[in-house]
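Protein entry
_____________
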Amino acid sequence: MKPFTTIAVVLLALGAVVQSVRFIQGWEIVVNGTTIPVWVSAIVAPIAAILAVMIWRENGRSGN
């Protein structure tokens, strides 16, 4: 696996885990005085996980 691909997969997977934990634990995030709703993590976590899996599988098909 190429270095950039590895980094992308790891960061996306890590993001999915952190978003999942945020959703389960109910952690609050405030950006510039605006609270980001916890339900956003329920949408972002699976998207990040799916992207990580797609990149990982695509790399396996290319034979690199």
Summary: Helices lie at 3-25, 39-61.
